[in-house]
Structures are given as C-alpha cells and as structure tokens.
Amino acid sequence: MSVGQQRARDAIEFGTRVSKPGFNLFVIGPSGIRAQSAVEQVLKETASERKNSSDWVYVNNFADPRKPMAIQLPAGRAGEFHDVMHRLIDDLKTALPAVFASEDYQTRRGAIDQAFQAKQGEAFTALRDKAAAKNIVILRTPMGFALAPARDGQPVPPDEFGKWPETQRRDTEAIIETLEKDLEHVMRQLPQWETERRDEIRKLNRETAKFAIGQLIDTAKARFTDIPKIVAHQEAILADLIENVGMFVAKSEGEESADLQYQFEGLFDRYAVNVLVGHTKDEPGVPIIEEQHPTLSNLLGSIEYVSHHGVLVTNFHFIKAGAVHRANGGFLLLDARSLLTEPFSWTALKRTLRQREIRIEDLGRFIGLTSTVSIEPDPIPLDVKVVLFGDRLLYYLLAAFDPDLAEHFKVLADLEDDVDRTPATEAAHARMIAALARRYGLKAVDRAGTALMIEYAARIADDANKLTLIADQLNDVLIEADFRAGIVGRTVITRTDVETAIEAKIRRSSRLRDRAQESILEDIALIDTSGTRVGQVNGLSAAELAGFRFGRPTRITCRVRPGSGKVVDIEREVALGGPIHSKGVLILSGFLAGRYALDTPMSLFASLVFEQSYGGVEGDSASSAELYALLSALADLPVRQDLAVTGSVNQQGQVQAIGGVNEKIEGFFDICQKRGLTGSQGVLIPKSNVQHLMLRQDVIAACVAGKFSIYPVSSIDEGTALLTGHPAGERAGDGLYPPQSLNRLVEDRLHAFARIRQSFGREALSSSESRT
Amino acid sequence: MTSQLTEFKRVLVGLPQTGANLEAVNAVADLAEFLHIELLATFVTDSSLHTPAGFPAVRELRIPDHGWQTIDLAQIRRDIDRAAAVARQRFYKAVGNRTIKTSFDIVTGTQVMASLIRADDIVAIIEPTHPGDRVTLQFTAMLDAALASARAILVLPHRIVRTSGPVMALATGPEDASIRVALAIAATLKESLIVVARAGMLVPDEMLADARELGVQVELIADGGLAAHATEFASSASRAKERLRVVMRSQLPADAPRLFSMLHAVPLLVVEPIK
C-alpha cells in the first residue's frame, strides 16, 4: 500500500486480523485510487495467518432428496472425493449388471420363481384334479373363475343338468359349493405367495448387491476414514443401493433400449458429488475473491433447473457456488456501488453475515417466476471477511440511512487522497511510477520524466505540498507518454513525452474552455483586461466537466443607491444562485454592517450580479470579488480591470482559501496572454492558497519575466488597495477613517444614504401631519 | 438352409379373453416379421361360458375384488366384447407399421381355434399371467389343440427379458431338427447359434459348413443332463443370454405347468422332426 496510507493500512490489518463477527471492512477513498489492488496486497500479506479454507461438496440426501447435504473437507480433498466417487460409480455400473446377470444370480432367481410358480401351479392342478374327479371343470370368465358340472371334460348343458335326478343335482351343487371354497382359498393365497416371492427376490437382490458393491464401497471409504460425514454418506449409498437394487436388475437382465440406458445412467447420478468449492492442496493462503458483478446468484450461488418432459426439475447437481462460497474462509472483495445497484444483493449479503451461514436464495422464487418443486440445500457455515469498496459519499449515506451498516462493517479504512510532499514521498512516488510502468509493460521513465510526473501528481493534488495518491490519472498520462515516446522511437519515456501527453490530454478535453475563451476574446462575453471601472470586478470561476477543470473570468458588477439596508444578490433572486453563494453575499451585508456607519441605520440598496452568467452559480469563492465591487461602487472608486480576483471573505474582511486556484489563475492568464501581456496584469488570490499553487510552466515563466503577477492577499483592505490604488485606511482615534481612504469614502456614502433616507422620512411625516 | 423355415407360412397366435401380454404379442410379431410370414391373431371367445350361466348355483369368483357373484350372461357378453376390443387394440399397437400381412379374428370356442391351425403354421401360445389360467378348461384345450395339430409351437413366457442374443438349440443328437431350425433362425436374425448337447456330441460338418456359409457363429455347449430331459438343462442355460430356444417336440414335458417352468423368460420354439 502506498506511502501515506498508514491510517487505512492499520484499519485493514486490524479488520483482517480480528475474527469476531461484524468486523468486516468498508474501504472508502477517491475513485481511481486503485484501492482494490492495494488492499488485496495487504490481504495477501495477512492471509498467511489464517488457516487454509475448506472444500465444500453437496451430495444427495437419501433420507430427504429435497435437502442436499453439504460436506466440509480439508482443502484439496473435494477433488479426491469426487474422483473416488466417480470411479466407484463407474465400477458400480459394471459390477451391478454383471452380478445380476451372473449364472449364480440367475439360477437362484429362477429357482425362486420356479418354486413359487410350482407352488401356485400345484395348488391349481390339485384343485383341477379334485374337481375333475367329481366331474367339475374350472372355467375362466373374463373377470374371474367359475366351476361347472361336466361330463367327459366338457360342461353339461343346463337342459341336461335339469334332467338329472334331484339328488344328483343337489350333490353336484354341494360339490361345487365345496370346491368354490377350495378355489377361494387358493385365490386368497396367491397375493400372499406373490408377496413372499417378491420378498425372497428382494432378499436375494440385497444379498447379491451387498456382495457386489460392499467391497467397492469399503475401498472408497478407506480413503476418507478421517472424515466421518463422508464415511456416513458412503454407508448411506450402500444402504440405498441395496434398498433400491431392483432398479438395476432390469438392466442386468439385458433389456436394452436408449431410454432404459439413459435411465440406467441417471440412476447413478445421485451417488455422484457436486464439488461446490474445491482448492488445490498446494494452493497458498486463503482465497481472495473479487466479484465484479454481484448479482444475488453470483454472490450467494444459485439453483439451476433443467426441463424434463416440460417440467423444470433440479437436484443437488444443479447447485452452483457463489462468490461467498468461493471466498469462504478468506476474503470477499466487492464494489459497494455495484452491490447496491443489484436487486436483493445487499439485503441478502447482510442477512448472510447476520446468520453466519450461506443459504442459497433462489431469485426466481423470490419474485415468483418459478413455482416448481425446488431443493433446500444445507446451509454452509460462513467464515468470510467482506471488504467493500466505495466512495465516501456512498459510505456516509449508507451510514446515515442503513443502521445495519454499523453492525456488519465495523471497520472503516479511509484512504487518503494525497500525501504530504517530502523527499521520502517523492521517492516513493517515483517508485510507484516505475511500478506502474512495469505493471502495464511500459517503457521506463527517465529522471526528468519522473520529476514531471511528480509535479503532475502535485498538480492533481491541487497543492504544491501534496502528492496525489490517485494512481489512475497518473497511469493514464504514463500510458500516453509511453505511446508518444514510441511514436518518435524513444526507448524510455522522457520529460518531453510526459509534457506532450499532459498537453494532449488537456487539448482533447478543452473544447469548452477554448470556446469560452474565444467568446471573451471576441467581446461576446465582456471581460476587460485593462483600464478601470467603478463597481466592476473580474471574478474567477472554475468549472469541471468529465474530470477536466478549467477557470474563466466573469464580470461582477454592483450598483448602489439609498435603500433599506439590503444587498440584493440577483443570482439568488432569479434562483440561479446556490445556497453557498447566497451565504457569501449575505456575509457582505454583515461585513458592511459591522464596519461602516455604526451610528446610523444601514440605508443602502445594492445589487450584485454575475454578468452574462446564464447557468447556476454556486460556491463562495467570488464573495471577495463581490465585496470589492460593492466597496468600489460605494466609494465611487474605479477598480483595475487588468486584475482578476478569487477568494471568499468572512464578516471580518479576511480573505479565505478557495479551490481550483491554479485553473482560475490560468484561465485569466490565457485571456491576458492572448490579448497581450502588459506586465500589469495579475490575479489576487487568498494568501492561504499560495501553498496550492502548481501553475503551468508558461504562467510561471510570465511571472518570472514580470509580465504577469499573482498577489496573495489576506484581507479585503489589502485587496482594495491593490485594485483601487487607494489605501483602505484605519479608523483613527476620532472614530473616523482617514480622508480619501476607501473606507472613509464608503462610510461617507453610507451616511449620505442615511441622511437621504432620513429626510424622506421627515417629509413624509410632515405631509402626513398637514393632511391631518 | 433357410429352407428349413420356408415350410412356415404363418404365425397363428391365440389371444385369450383374459387379455394377452403386449410384450409377448410384440415378440410374436417380431418373429413373423423376421421370417416374412403372415401373422394371424385369434381372439377366442368361450361359448362354454354360456353354460354355467344357466345354473343358478354356479357363481363367478371375480379376481379384482375376490368376491363371489352370480353369473350374469349379459355381463359375461359385455366383458368378452370389451376384452376382444382391448385385444384388437393391443394387437394392432404391437404390429404397428410392420411390413408383414397381419389380421385379427374373433373365433368362438377352442375347437374352432383347433380347426384354424394349418400344417405350415407356427402356433404361438402365450403363457397366462395368472397361474390359475393354466388349469382352466379353455387354456388347456387351446394348448392341447396346438400340440396336437401344429408342426411348430412358439411358447412365450409372460415376461421376456431379451430381444437380442444368440439362438439356442437344445439338441438330443447331431441330426436333431432343433439345430437346423435354430441355425436358420439365427441366420435370419443375424445372431449366433448355441447348440446345447450331451457330452461328446459333435455338430455335423455339413451343418457347420452351412453355418459358415450363412455367416453364423456356432458354439457347442456340452450338458450331460440333457439326455434325461430338456427341462433339466433349463437352469443352466441362462448364462448364454439367448433370445430364443429351439427344442424338439419329444423334449416337451407332459403338462402345462412344467412346460412353462422351463421358459425362464425366454421364448421357446417347439419343432417336429424333419421329414
């Protein structure tokens, strides 16, 4: 992890080492800081302290196939288990049909069938013989059996029977009645005999199967005696095979059809193993998994279905692992924004962390898309560190609106945007630049090129004393510099290449800036860079579009007249001013009220406006410029138009730091340069922004040559002196500012406004009394 | 050699009114198709059933509910009609799109069935599913008729386990007709031939030459017990996984139960000595 990230590094190390629930990490920082790779590096360093992750498999639950069983194995053993069971199944496919097709089995099976057929046959033969001896035949009706008197083996017609003596008829009927009981007795025995036959065959099948597969199962078991759950599962397989061996007998008896073959192959599927998570034995450390597309399925796994005869079916083979499964025992890296934008994922992750077990949740069932019979796999115990990456705003919003965040992500690692610029950090940055070049296969960067890259890092940091830690922007320039060096056939990246890359990058993005400058140069947007004007100041604003920031001057004007003490911000009145901007204008009223004409009511009406501004205005960085315009208007002192102003102001008249100082200076410089530098032009900036100056070389060169100036000011008085050429003036012992000082002129004007207002009040009163 | 089969022109299968096993009907149709001969199915209705209907004391033990019921002649007729319809449907389902000539007849009385049998028929008898059927007047009469009239009888077990595999001849001597017929069928079915014979018996060279010519592989299995009776051999025959056994009429047991006990889920073709 980069120099300057010690706070975040400590947090990550703590988060990864503490093993209590909820101590997951939320890593926040600016976008493009390459937090993932940096954090991953730290995780790898600490990963060796954690015990190796387990393998997980799902197997059939013979007691309840709807609830597949999860089995935990030491790392690297899942594959072995899978292979052993695969071999076992192959052996079973051969051994089972073979043993049931064997002469021994067929003989014993045939003997059972024959014995029972003989038993049945004998019973019916005995009945037939008994009946025949008494001149009775057994007849078969479509639905059953009947007994009828016979002569010479043929039924006696009813007419003939009617001619028999009554005693003979009664005797025959009595015989039939007796034989009916015998027939009924035999018939009642048939189901019982059939049951006995089936039981005997089942017993024979079990014995045969046990003989055939017992040894195979024992061999498979021997490899996993250290894992009782696997041994128990293999015993369950043996029991299931024995119990259901009838399914394999049909195959063994030579019935061969494609459908039967398919069914036969399918019979063994339930003895196979679904390796959910498997590691290799020599895999170092624990898994560090990054899921870039954290859908619910990708995160927590899924249950897939296949269509079978138009019905969606599933079993334990169709359980698919999610990132949480793969990361279990290690670290799961997720982008917070991606996680939050996927339906159900964030909630499901929190639920999983709370339950401390992984339950596969079927999205289709959640939203009612599938209503077919599904499975409920055993949950798997969770032992994972989740590391979320996000920007600060996202984290603070979540912290504010989701109380669960604090429960599950107790460790915050806040990555710095930049680092103090010291010889050590410059050296570290130089190493980082070299490392980036190596990682992306770029040419080496020479000393001067590296120096400029470090300057560029300071420029991105907006601070001469800081270096950015956002590697993405540096990397982009480096890659382009490599490209530029390649074009001219250089083998190393030089300062020229870096310069060209930076300029090209700016040029590609600067169309809007150029159009804005063009409109000023063509006097469409009115900006003076010479002369003086009362109540008119060149303010500076900065705009940022798609990562490109540029400054431009804006004319700020002020008009004053007697009034009720109100400073009107026209931007606010027309809803173009943002709240911070409005606050800045209101501060001006406070400044005026606290400094001038303390013995009279404030009788001023002033209006301030950003001329030719048709979009929103936000921020208070122009409040000092607005105050200068206001004071100029009140004092009726012209302001230099060859100067531009930036900085916010407080009620005490102190000028305060603003952002984008470099771009603002460069924005005014560009206009002045294009119109021709006079040597008097320059920019007033807050003194506290001096440390942030990282100006373009051409600006620095112009300053060195005395063609352009930058004036750090710490107070409004300093600024007004520069802009008007009149000292502000200190209040003397008589309570008055010195004559002709700016402050005196302002105060006199305010007194004059008060008097005008007072006289209007008197006239109004007297005319009211005369009417009365 | 296939001339041994040319004497057969038709397979006649009797379908009992209790309903014939579809699997067995299929096997019969297969044989007829392989031999390119006509297949005639006869559904035998039993007129003798009208007789007990006239006796008030005679009742019917109905299998579905094991209950006694007075015989109702109208009900019997309806049951027979329904059974005939089912038999016809099953028969035509079994013969399907076969290329041979097939027909389905309904005849009344087992005596009529006997009269239908021709000398060039193979009469197919399907083992009844219910053990009681084997001793009924109707089935014994049909079996007796077949045994008395036909040159060849195909006895089909109610469960057939294989539809491919060698053809087996259970021979009593080198000139046994079963060998020649089995060889001809094996050649037609493109299967091998297994000859089970007493120890020391050899298959005649002429027959082996015929087999070579027909492309039929011949295997000789010695079995000492065969001399006594073919049924004694039955228990050891399954190792060959044969699809059909051929045996001489003289080797048949005297009664139906013993006849069916030697099937072992494999069809048995009973042939007469060659004239």
Compact overview of the structure:
The complex is a heterodimer of chains A (772) and B (275). By secondary structure, chain A is of the alpha/beta class.
In one word, what is the shape of chain B? elongated
| Multimeric status of the protein | heterodimer
Low-confidence stretches of chain B: none
The helix/strand class of chain A is: alpha/beta
The DSSP helix count of chain A reads 28
CA-based gyration radius of chain A: 47 Å
Kindly report the average pLDDT value of chain B: 80
What's the overall geometry of chain A?
elongated
Measured distance between first and last alpha carbons of chain B: 15 Å
Fold and architecture overview:
The complex is a heterodimer of chains A (772) and B (275). Chain A has 772 residues and is α/β, with parallel strands linked by helices. Helix content of chain A is 51%, strand content 18%. In chain A, the strands form eleven sheets. A seven-stranded mixed β-sheet of chain A has the order 25-26-24-23-28-31-32, sandwiched between helices. The longest helix of chain A is centred in the N-terminal third of the chain and has 57 residues, at 166-222. In chain B, helix 2 links the parallel strand 1 (10-15) and strand 2. Chain B has 275 residues and is of the alpha/beta class. The model of chain B has no long low-confidence stretch (mean pLDDT 80). Chain B contains nine helices and twelve strands. In chain B, 34% of the residues lie in helices and 23% in strands. The interface between A and B is large, with 52 and 52 residues. Strand 5 of chain A pairs antiparallel with strand 3 of chain B, so a sheet runs across the interface.
